[in-house]
Design goal:
single chain, 259 residues, alpha+beta, 2 domains, four-stranded antiparallel beta sheet, 8 strands, elongated
């Protein structure tokens, strides 16, 4: 079994939607490839986030209709022993677990995209979810998504420094993910007309990695560009929009060594 096939089974396992045969295949493959732990954790985390709703409310009909329409047009596969792959029929307007089992006696493997859509639909129909909560889940900031990817990686690393005002700043990075994220707490707002700018410091050469905002002393910022081994991560205060010269114009307020 390759990693892509395992990922499809892992998505089904997170939703408790595997047949007995696929469940055995999933467990056997996981035992043989413990390095795929990150895939299992990411799918379990996604399923958990979907299940955590603050309130049970009736979702707008438009959300359910949109999900059903997307499932209907998403390419799917149905495979069984001795059969050639063939296209699956569009999802019906409504269904139950018993009806699905009666109509499909052979094991079914869906793509990960369809599993994710089916999970959303099951939660909408079964427990209800607020439109605001769903929108927040589907539109998470890139920095938050990147931080979760880094934390799930097997080579995730982090380093923390104390700030002068009593707060902390932590750099998170992963070579396999290829991203770095700064998380700060207790960072004062820059002055009017100013912003914080991120830098990769490579020896004596700073490389701009974008600007970021602070909200109530907190910030989660994804660094632009590729981090290299040994880079330090620094932050300076620059004019709004970032340094006009491409080089720092002030002393750093944060410096985090990563080597």
């Amino acid at each position: 079994m390759n990693e892509k096939e395992f990922a499809e089974l892992a998505a089904g396992a997170a939703l408790h939607a595997l047949s007995a045969d696929d469940e055995r295949r999933f467990r056997d493959a996981f035992a043989a490839h413990p390095e795929w732990q990150a895939i299992v954790e990411a799918d379990a985390g996604a399923a958990g986030l979907l299940a955590e709703t603050a309130a049970t409310v009736d979702p707008p009909a438009s959300i359910r209709s949109a999900l059903l329409a997307q499932i209907a047009v998403t390419p799917q596969r149905i495979e069984s022993d001795g059969d050639e792959p063939r296209a699956a029929a569009p999802a019906p307007e409504s269904f139950t677990t018993e009806e699905a089992a009666a109509e499909s006696p052979k094991p079914r493997r869906w793509t990960r995209t369809v599993f994710a859509l089916a999970a959303c639909l099951a939660l909408l129909v079964g427990v209800g979810i607020g439109a605001v909560a769903l929108n927040q889940q589907l539109n998470r900031p890139a920095s938050v998504v990147a931080l979760q990817e880094i934390e799930a990686a097997g080579d995730a690393e982090q380093a923390t420094v104390a700030l002068d005002d009593g707060g902390t700043a932590t750099a998170h990075w992963s070579g396999s993910v290829g991203k770095a994220v700064l998380v700060a707490d207790g960072l004062p707002n820059p002055g009017e007309g100013e912003t914080y700018e991120l830098w990769f410091v490579r020896g004596d050469a700073p490389v701009s990695a974008g600007v970021f905002d602070v909200d109530g002393g907190e910030a989660t910022a994804l660094l632009d560009g590729d981090m290299q081994a040994g880079d330090a991560i620094a932050v300076t205060v620059e004019q709004a929009g970032g340094s006009p010269t491409g080089q720092p114009t002030s002393d750093p307020v944060i410096v985090i060594p990563t080597a």
